[in-house]
Design goal:
The complex is a heterotrimer of chains A (about 280), B (about 325) and C (about 425). Chain A has 2 domains: about 10-60, no CATH class; about 75-280, Orthogonal Bundle (MetI-like fold), CATH 1.10.3720. Chain A has 12 helices and 2 strands. Chain A has helices spanning about 10-35, 55-65, 75-105, 110-120, 130-140, 145-170, 175-180, 185-195, 200-215, 220-225, 235-240, 250-280; strands spanning about 65, 70. Chain A has a two-stranded antiparallel ribbon. Chain B is flat and about 70 Å long. Chain B has helices at about 5-20, 25-60, 75-80, 85-115, 125-130, 140-150, 160-165, 185-210, 215-220, 225-235, 240-255, 260-265, 275-285, 290-320; strands spanning about 150-155, 155-160. Chain B contains 14 helices and 2 strands, in the order ααααααββαααααααα. Chain B is an all-alpha fold and about 325 residues long. Chain B starts with 6 loop residues before the first helix and ends with a helix. The longest helix of chain B is centred in the N-terminal third of the chain and has 34 residues, at about 25-60. The model of chain B is unreliable at about 1-10 and about 20-25 (pLDDT under 50). In chain B, strands 1-2 form a two-stranded antiparallel sheet. Chain C is of the alpha/beta class. Chain C folds into 2 domains: about 25-150 and about 300-365, Periplasmic binding protein-like II (D-Maltodextrin-Binding Protein, domain 2, 3-Layer(aba) Sandwich); about 150-300 and about 370-410, D-Maltodextrin-Binding Protein, domain 2 (3-Layer(aba) Sandwich). The termini of chain C are far apart. The model of chain C is unreliable at about 15-25 (pLDDT under 50). Classes of the chains: A mainly alpha (about 280), B mainly alpha (about 325), C alpha/beta (about 425). Chains in contact: A-B, A-C, B-C. At the A-B interface, helix 1, helix 3, helix 4, helix 5 and helix 6 of A face helix 1, helix 2, helix 4, helix 5 and helix 6 of B.
Chain lengths: ~280, ~325, ~425
C-alpha cells in the first residue's frame, strides 16, 4: 500500500501507539509484579511498587501446589487442558470445515435455514443448560471424563466453526467446484483435493479461536469433570483461591502460568490469525 | 488468492479417482452431503434446542428444590421476576453495559486498526500488544482489573488507576469505579474493552487491507481530505465488519458472567449485577431452578432479538450477491 | 491428502492417549471422595490434618480431595446440584449444620445419621444447643467438625490505647467511640462487603444486640415478627453505623478490609472468628476481641459438617470418615489449623491459641443462637433473600422497604404468616 491517507506527523502517530501500548500493558505489569512478591508483601495499596524482594516462590507454589498449605498445584491440570484442548480443537475445526463446505458449496433448499438454526446455538447462556447437560452426558457415559469435555466443546463449538468456515468458503469461487465436478469428482473428492488444501487460513482462525476458548473455559470444566484429577486448568486456577482466604501472589502467578499457552498462541501465530481474517473468514 | 490450487493440476487426480470409483452420480453426492451435516444437526437439535425446550418448560413450573417439581404455574415466575428489584436493576445494567461496550470497543478497535494501517515499523509488535488480551480468560481479566479499578479509600489513600491518575496530575479523573453505585457496571466495560478491542482491531485491519488502493487514491485525487475519505468511503465499506463485530460483541455482553464474577461481584446495590449472575445464584444457591430457567429464557429472547434480524438480513443480502 | 492423513493419525493418537489412562483405572485401592470448598489457607490445612488422622486408621484407602472454590461456595453448590441430581454423589460433602441442609432435599438424597450419633456417643459430647441446630425433620443429617462464632468484634489494640478508648459494650458507647475516632481520621467501622454477605453478617450482631438472644431466635421460628419495632430500631442503628465505614467497602472482601486494622487505620470489624486465622497468617498479633455491643453472653454459631449422600460409592469408607470427623483426634487435628473450636466439648484446650480458648469457654456458657448468613438459622432460599435485602440496604438506606422485604422473605419461607 503506497498511499497513506493520514499524513500526520509520524512522531505523533508513534507517540500515540506507544502510549496506548503502555496503557494496554499496565495490567500485565500488575500481574507480573504481584506474582513476584511474597504473601506478606502483597498489598493492594502498594500494587504498583516494584517487589522489595524478588521471589519466584509463588510460581513454584502455583505450579506444584503446597502440601503444608493444602492446595493442589496447576501442573497436573495443565496437562489435562492440553489433552482436552488439542483433540477438541482439531475435531471441532474438522467438523466446522465439513459443515461449512456442505452449507456453502452444496446448497439445497433448506441449507440457509439449517445454517441459521445451527448458528443460533452459539447464543444460548450455558449456565441454563447445565442440569440437562449433565444428565444426558451421564446417560451416554461421557460424564466425568475428559472425553466428555471434548464432546461438549465440540458440540458447542459447531456453530462458530461452521460460521467461520462457511463464510470463508463463500469467498471461494463456485467455478472451482463446478470444474472439479465436470472432471468427475464427487463431494468428498472435491473436499479432499480442491477445498481442503486451500482452507489453511480458515483453519488458522478457527483453531486459534477454538483453542483459546476451550483452554479458557471454566464452567464446563467445573461441572462436567468434578474430579480434580481430570479437571482442566482454569478450574484449578480458580481453586487457588480459598473460600475465605486468597493468596494474591500465588493466584497472579497461577494466572500467568495458565495464560501462557494461549498468549503464546496469539503472539506467535497472530499473523496467521490476521491472514485468515484477511482471507475473508470472518467478514460479517 | 494464489493459494487456490489450479484446477488443471488437480483435475487429472480427480478424474483418475472418478474413473476408479466408477463415477458417482449427483444423487449419491446429495446423500453424502446430508450425511456429513447430519451429526451436527442432530447434536445441535438435542443439546441446544432440546435443552432450550427443557428450560422453557422448567420456567413454567414450580421447581424450587433439588428434586424436580414440575407442577404447572404458568407465567407466575416471570411475573415475580419482573417485580424483583434485583432483576430490574440487572436488565438496566445489561442495556447500559451492552450499549457502552459496543460503542467504546468498536471505536477503540477501529482507531487501533487505522493507526496500525499506517505502515509503521514494529507493526507486528504493536499488534501483539493489542491482540494478546484476547488470549486471556475472563477470570484472569476480572482478577487483575478488580485491583486496577479499586479506588482505594479516603483513609488509606488511592490505589490502582486512581493512584496513577494522581501521579500524572490527572487526579480530577479519579472516581469510585465499581464501588460507586452510580458507575457500577460501567467500570466492567473498561475491562471488557481491554480484552476484546484487539479482536475488533484485527477485523478492521483485515477489512481495511481489503479496500482497494485505487478507491482511496481516486478520492484523494478528487480533492477529498483524508478525513473525508475515511468518513464517506472507508467506513461505509466496512459496514459488514462493523455489523459482524456488533453481533459477536453484543452476544458476549448479553451473556457476560465470568468477568463480573471475578471482578466486581454484584456490586453495591447490585450496580454491577447481571442476569447471568443472578441466574447462577438463584439456581444453585437459592435452589430456585424454575426462576433460573425463567431468567435464562429472557436472556435467550434478548439475544434472539439482537441476532435473528441480523441473520435474516445477512442471509438475504447474500442471496442477492 | 497427506495433510488429511496426517491430521487423522494425529487425532487418533491423541484420542487414544487420553482414553488409555481412563481405561486403566483399576489398581485395587478403595477410594474416598470428599467434596468441599476448602481450597486454601487454614481450611485446607485443617482438612489435610483430618486426612492424616484418617489415613493412619485406614491406610488402604485413597483419599480424593475434590474441592471447588469461588463464590463463597456457590460454584461448589452448582457442582453438587448436578452431581446429586445426576446420580453421581461424592462420598461425603461439606454442608453447614442447620437448615441449610434443606436445600439438598435430605429425605431424597441424604442418609440419616441418627444411628451413628448414638453408637458413637455423640449425644453426650456435643452440646445440646448444637444438637438442636443439627436436627432437621427429626433426624441428624451431618456430623459437625467445628464451631465458628460469627458475632465477634475485632479491634486494633493500638488504635484503642492510642486514643484512650475501651471497646464499647452498648450501642451508645459504640457511637461515642466512633465519633471520637472519626474525628481523628480513623475508620471506626471496618467493612468489606464485596461478596455481598458481609453486611448481612454484621447485621446479625446488631439484631442480637437489639433484640437479645430469644428475640433473635424468634425471628427464625416465627415467634418474633420482622415487622416488630425492635427490628426497625436495629435497622436504624445499622444505618447509622454504616456512616462510619471505609469508603471503599464495596471493593474489599472481609479479609482485604482487615488490612485497615493491621495498618492501624481502622478500629473495629464485626466478622467471624476465621478473621483470627487470617490475622495470624499475616503475622499480626495486635488485635483484640470483644462481643459486639449488646452481644455479651450470646454466641452466634455456625458449624461446618459432613454429610452422607445416598448412593455414595464407597459407603463404608464414608462412614469411617464421618466417625473420624466426629472423633476427638479428628477434631483436634482440624480445628487449630482452621481457626475454629471443636464441636465436641472434650478437646484438649492447650492445642488452641488464646482467642480460640476464650471462644471455647464462651461456647460452653453462652446462649447459643444460629447464624443465618452461614446456613444455620434458615433454609437457603430465605437466607439468600435476607442477604440480598441487606446488601441493597447498604446503598439504599431504605429502612421501611428493607423491613418489608425481610418480612416478605419470612412469609416466602413459610415461617411467618
Amino acid at each position: 500500500m503506497t498511499v497513506r491517507p493520514l499524513p500526520w506527523l509520524r512522531p505523533v502517530l508513534y507517540a500515540l501507539l506507544v502510549g496506548l501500548a503502555i496503557l494496554y500493558l499496565l495490567p500485565v505489569y500488575v500481574l507480573v509484579v504481584t506474582s513476584m512478591k511474597s504473601f506478606a508483601e502483597v498489598n493492594l495499596y502498594r500494587m504498583w511498587d516494584w517487589p522489595a524482594r524478588f521471589s519466584l516462590e509463588s510460581f513454584v507454589h502455583a505450579w506444584a501446589g503446597s502440601e503444608t498449605q493444602g492446595f493442589r498445584g496447576l501442573s497436573h491440570n495443565f496437562w489435562n487442558s492440553v489433552r482436552l484442548g488439542v483433540p477438541a480443537t482439531l475435531l471441532s475445526a474438522l467438523l466446522g470445515s465439513l459443515n461449512g463446505y456442505v452449507l456453502s458449496k452444496w446448497k439445497f433448499r433448506a441449507a440457509d435455514t439449517l445454517f441459521a438454526l445451527l448458528l443460533f446455538g452459539m447464543f444460548i447462556p450455558y449456565q441454563s443448560i447445565l442440569i440437562p447437560l449433565v444428565q444426558v452426558l451421564r446417560r451416554i457415559g461421557l460424564y466425568g471424563s475428559i472425553l466428555g469435555l471434548i464432546f461438549t466443546h465440540v458440540v458447542y463449538g459447531i456453530p462458530i466453526t461452521t460460521l467461520i468456515f462457511r463464510n470463508y468458503y463463500a469467498t471461494v469461487p463456485g467455478e472451482l467446484v463446478e470444474a472439479a465436478k465436470i472432471d468427475g469428482a464427487g463431494i468428498l473428492g472435491i473436499y479432499r483435493y480442491v477445498v481442503f488444501p486451500i482452507s489453511l487460513p480458515a483453519f488458522a482462525v478457527v483453531m486459534i479461536w477454538q483453542f483459546t476458548s476451550i483452554w479458557n473455559d471454566f464452567l464446563f470444566g467445573v461441572i462436567i469433570t468434578p474430579r480434580p484429577a481430570v479437571q482442566p486448568i482454569m478450574v484449578a486456577l480458580n481453586n487457588l483461591a480459598g473460600s475465605y482466604i486468597v493468596e494474591w501472589n500465588v493466584q497472579m502467578a497461577g494466572a500467568l502460568l495458565a495464560a501462557l499457552p494461549t498468549v503464546l498462541v496469539y503472539v506467535v501465530l497472530g499473523r496467521y490469525f490476521m491472514r485468515g481474517l484477511l482471507a475473508g473468514s470472518l467478514k460479517g | 488468492m494464489t493459494q487456490n490450487a489450479t484446477p488443471t493440476r488437480v483435475a487429472p487426480a480427480l478424474a483418475a479417482r472418478a474413473v476408479r470409483r466408477g463415477g458417482r452420480g449427483p444423487t449419491a453426492d446429495r446423500l453424502i452431503s446430508l450425511l456429513l451435516i447430519a451429526p451436527s444437526l442432530i447434536v445441535i437439535a438435542v443439546f441446544v434446542y432440546g435443552f432450550i425446550g427443557f428450560t422453557a418448560f422448567a420456567s413454567l413450573t414450580k421447581w424450587n428444590a433439588l428434586a424436580p417439581d414440575f407442577s404447572w404455574v404458568g407465567l407466575q415466575n416471570y411475573a415475580q421476576l419482573f417485580s424483583t428489584i434485583r432483576f430490574q436493576i440487572d436488565l438496566r445494567n445489561t442495556v447500559t453495559f451492552t450499549v457502552l461496550f459496543l460503542v467504546v470497543c468498536l471505536s477503540l478497535g477501529f482507531t487501533l486498526a487505522v493507526l496500525l494501517d499506517q505502515r509503521i515499523r514494529g507493526e507486528g509488535l504493536f499488534r501483539s500488544v493489542f491482540l494478546f488480551p484476547l488470549a486471556l480468560s475472563f477470570i484472569v481479566t476480572g482478577v487483575v482489573w478488580r485491583w486496577m479499578l479499586n479506588p482505594g479509600s479516603v483513609q488509606l489513600g488511592s490505589t490502582g488507576v486512581n493512584l496513577l491518575l494522581e501521579k500524572v496530575g490527572l487526579g480530577f479523573l479519579k472516581s469510585g469505579w465499581y464501588t460507586d453505585p452510580r458507575i457500577g457496571i460501567k467500570a466492567v466495560v473498561i475491562a471488557a474493552t481491554w480484552q476484546m478491542s484487539g479482536y475488533v482491531m484485527a477485523m478492521y485491519v483485515a477489512g481495511l487491507r481489503g479496500i482497494p488502493e485505487e478507491l482511496r487514491e481516486a478520492a484523494l485525487v478528487d480533492g477529498a481530505s483524508s478525513f473525508q475519505v475515511y468518513r464517506h468511503i472507508i467506513v461505509p465499506l466496512l459496514n459488514p465488519i462493523t455489523l459482524g463485530a456488533m453481533i459477536i460483541l453484543g452476544h458476549i455482553s448479553l451473556k457476560i458472567f465470568d468477568l463480573v464474577v471475578a471482578m466486581t461481584g454484584p456490586g453495591p446495590g447490585f450496580s454491577s449485577d447481571v442476569p447471568a449472575f443472578f441466574m447462577f445464584e438463584t439456581t444453585f444457591r437459592g435452589n430456585n431452578f424454575a426462576q433460573g430457567a425463567g431468567i435464562a429464557l429472557i436472556l435467550l429472547v434478548m439475544v434472539a432479538v439482537l441476532i435473528v434480524p441480523y441473520l435474516v438480513y445477512s442471509l438475504r443480502t447474500e442471496t442477492q450477491r | 491428502m497427506r495433510q488429511i492423513r496426517g491430521l487423522t493419525v494425529l487425532s487418533l493418537l491423541l484420542i487414544s492417549v487420553m482414553v488409555a489412562p481412563a481405561g486403566w483405572a483399576g489398581a485395587a485401592k478403595s477410594k474416598l471422595e470428599i467434596f468441599s470448598w476448602w481450597t486454601a489457607g487454614g481450611e485446607a490445612e485443617g482438612l489435610a490434618g483430618m486426612f492424616t488422622v484418617y489415613k493412619k486408621l485406614y491406610p488402604n484407602v485413597d483419599i480424593v480431595n475434590a474441592t471447588v472454590a469461588g463464590g463463597a461456595g456457590t460454584n461448589a453448590k452448582a457442582v453438587l446440584a448436578t452431581r446429586l441430581t445426576g446420580g453421581d454423589p461424592p462420598d461425603s460433602f461439606q454442608v453447614h449444620a442447620g437448615l441449610e441442609v434443606q436445600k439438598y432435599d435430605p429425605a431424597k438424597y441424604l442418609e440419616p445419621l441418627d444411628g451413628l450419633f448414638t453408637s458413637a456417643g455423640w449425644d453426650k459430647v456435643f452440646p445440646s444447643g448444637l444438637l438442636t441446630l443439627l436436627r432437621y425433620q427429626g433426624h441428624y443429617w451431618s456430623v459437625p467438625v467445628n464451631i465458628h462464632r460469627a458475632n465477634v468484634m475485632w479491634y486494633s489494640k493500638k488504635v484503642f490505647t492510642d486514643n484512650k478508648l475501651t471497646p464499647p459494650k452498648t450501642f451508645d458507647e459504640w457511637f461515642k467511640v466512633a465519633d471520637a475516632l472519626k474525628a481523628k481520621g480513623i475508620v471506626p467501622f471496618v467493612l468489606g462487603d464485596k461478596e455481598g454477605w458481609e453486611a448481612g453478617h454484621a447485621f446479625e450482631a446488631v439484631l442480637i444486640g437489639t433484640l437479645g438472644a430469644d428475640g433473635y431466635r424468634g425471628l427464625w421460628t416465627g415467634k418474633t415478627q420482622w415487622t416488630d419495632a425492635k427490628v426497625t430500631q436495629a435497622l436504624n442503628t445499622f444505618k447509622r453505623m454504616l456512616t462510619y465505614t471505609n469508603s471503599d467497602h464495596a471493593a474489599l472482601t472481609w479479609d482485604g478490609a482487615g488490612q485497615y486494622l493491621i495498618d492501624n487505620k481502622g478500629a473495629m470489624q464485626i466478622m467471624g472468628d476465621w478473621q483470627n486465622g487470617w490475622f495470624q497468617s499475616k503475622n499480626y498479633s495486635g488485635y483484640g476481641w470483644a462481643s459486639p455491643p449488646g452481644n455479651a453472653g450470646v454466641f452466634d454459631a455456625l458449624s461446618d459438617s459432613f454429610s452422607l449422600p445416598k448412593g455414595a460409592k464407597d459407603r463404608e469408607n464414608a462412614m469411617n470418615w464421618l466417625k473420624v470427623a466426629g472423633s476427638k483426634a479428628g477434631q483436634e487435628a482440624f480445628n487449630p489449623k482452621k481457626g475454629s473450636i471443636c464441636a465436641r466439648t472434650d478437646c484438649t484446650q492447650s492445642l488452641f491459641n488464646a482467642y480460640l480458648q476464650s471462644a471455647a469457654q464462651d461456647w460452653k456458657s453462652n446462649a447459643l443462637v444460629p447464624s443465618v448468613i452461614h446456613g444455620a438459622a434458615a433454609i437457603e432460599s430465605w437466607a439468600t433473600k435476607y442477604k440480598d435485602a441487606l446488601a441493597l440496604f447498604v446503598t439504599s438506606g431504605d429502612v421501611a422497604k428493607t423491613q418489608a422485604d425481610l418480612q416478605q422473605a419470612c412469609k416466602g419461607a413459610g415461617v411467618c404468616k
